[in-house]
Amino acid sequence: MVRISQFDPKLFIEILPQLAEGAWVTLKITSISIFIGLMIGIVAGMGRISSNYIFRWISSFYVEFIRGTPLLVQIMLVYYGIPALGINLPPYPAGIAALSINSGAYIAEIIKAGIQSVHRGQMEAARSLGMTYLQAMRYVIFPQAFRNVLPALGNEFIALLKDSSLVSVIAIVELTRVGKQIYSMTFNAWTPLLGVALFYLLMTLPLSRLVRYAEERLGKYTKS
Amino acid sequence: MLRKGLENTPKVRVVELHKYFGNLHVLKGINLEVKKGEVVVIIGPSGSGKSTLLRCINRLEEPTSGKIYLDNTEITDPKVDINKVRQKIGIVFQSFNLFPHLTALENITLAPIKVQKRSKEEAEKVAKELLRKVGLEDKASAYPDQLSGGQQQRVAIARALAMNPEVMLFDEVTSALDPELVKEVLDVMRNLAMEGMTMIVVTHEMGFAREVGDRVIFMDGGKIIEEGPPRQIFSKPKHERTRKFLSMIL
């Protein structure tokens, strides 16, 4: 308890703006990454159930590789590996690239499940009207699939928001790194780090509420 | 009642059609000609291959061998644009398969707008006419969930008709309906037949077959066992198997 008594309310108030700024960076990085991850996930998710052997194999390899290796290793692979190939990659693009590629694999599985959750009669009905496979996907399958997996996508966003703390190791000044910096300057551990945790909670709690609300509203299609 | 006269040109022609599901031989050499404006009703026990035959005609199932023609176009030719062909062959399913995220009107206009590139105004005008035709003009903005089975199936018929098909396929379209809702769907189909639509109907509704069908085909074990005018099939079937089947259901 001696150490907890280190918690310094005055310091806490003082560092709030810095923490808020770090939280804002975390939110931005996560949002951009989840958006790019969604694009990757849609393509890879379609690949997972494609009848094209090569497309399916590449997608499966990608998903298995990402899910079977630590995110920290993936971040370092991108940040140290790509410059080793002679391509200049600053921390922020590297961090966003790593997080996007990582979330893309998890989103691919969500999208795959979403597509499979739509009754196959829907695809048949769409194709029977002369739609191409892609038109049927775009206008008939995806709108229903997205609705079904919205909670899962929300949970993935929350997970990525927390995992994004790992990009602090490649010199991106997001929420976690802000806390660590304050700690190294003040040698006070509890005040900045509890502050960091609090800011993560402030972001994840409303999000998980939103996900639960979306889950409850799933079901019938009617005019809202 | 007046019925537009049948023409003598075959609209759909099926030649030596075989279909396997794995090792299962589902269609064993089907030959069939349907004239323009003709209403052909296919009956038979479940598992006889009648739905598979129907689904082969717009290639929702790929035939294993054999040929299918629409007018003079071989639609089983791999080079044919199947999406073009399917616009000419409408199908209505047992389970309706309406798009649940779209209103009745949007269900009908989606393909005309996206596939045939018609304007939204034009597509909606046609859709409203079709809804009136199936007796649902007041349900344009309803979602499928808000409609009864019979209403959903009528919207599904309107959706297929919106593409201006030359042939309509009906795959046991009343089998999933409560008995009191069957008639409203059959009435729509009867009117369509009167207007001269070429129709191939897989059904267990023998009353409809007898009254509206120009020809009844009895299938069993993946083969056409017997065909003829409804009166003949129902009162003087030539084949033992046909007799047996009819005695079980009539």
Q: How would you describe what is shown here?
A:
The complex is a heterodimer of chains A (224) and B (250). With 224 residues, chain A is mostly helical. In chain A, 79% of the residues lie in helices and 0% in strands. Chain A is built from eight helices and no strands. Chain A has helices at 9-48, 53-67, 71-84, 91-117, 120-128, 133-163, 175-186, 190-217. In chain A, helix 1 packs across helix 8. The longest helix of chain A is centred in the first third of the chain and has 40 residues, at 9-48. Chain A is flat. Chain A starts with 8 loop residues before the first helix and ends in a 7-residue tail after the last helix. The mean pLDDT of chain A is 93. Chain B has 250 residues and is an alpha/beta fold. Chain B has nine helices and ten strands. In chain B, the strands form two sheets. Chain B has a six-stranded mixed sheet with strand order 6-7-8-3-9-10, with helices on both faces. The longest helix of chain B has 16 residues, at 179-194. Helices cover 37% and strands 25% of the residues of chain B.
Short descriptors:
heterodimer; A: 224 residues; mainly alpha; 79% helix; 0% strand; flat; B: 250 residues; alpha/beta; six-stranded mixed β-sheet; four-stranded antiparallel β-sheet; 9 helices; 25% strand; globular
Rg of chain A, Cα atoms, Å:
21 Å
Mean pLDDT of chain B: 94
What is the number of beta strands of chain A?
Answer: 0
SSE order of chain A: HHHHHHHH
Largest sheet of chain B: 6 strands, mixed
* Overall pLDDT score of chain A: 93
Q: Secondary-structure blueprint of this entry?
A:
The complex is a heterodimer of chains A (224) and B (250).
Chain A: H1 9-48, H2 53-67, H3 71-84, H4 91-117, H5 120-128, H6 133-163, H7 175-186, H8 190-217
Chain B: E1 10-21, E2 24-35, E3 39-43, H1 50-57, E4 65-70, E5 73-74, H2 82-88, E6 89-92, H3 104-114, H4 120-133, H5 149-161, E7 167-171, H6 179-194, E8 198-202, H7 206-212, E9 215-220, E10 223-228, H8 230-235, H9 240-249
Parallel strand pairs in B: 3-8, 3-9, 6-7, 7-8
Antiparallel strand pairs in B: 1-2, 1-4, 4-5, 9-10
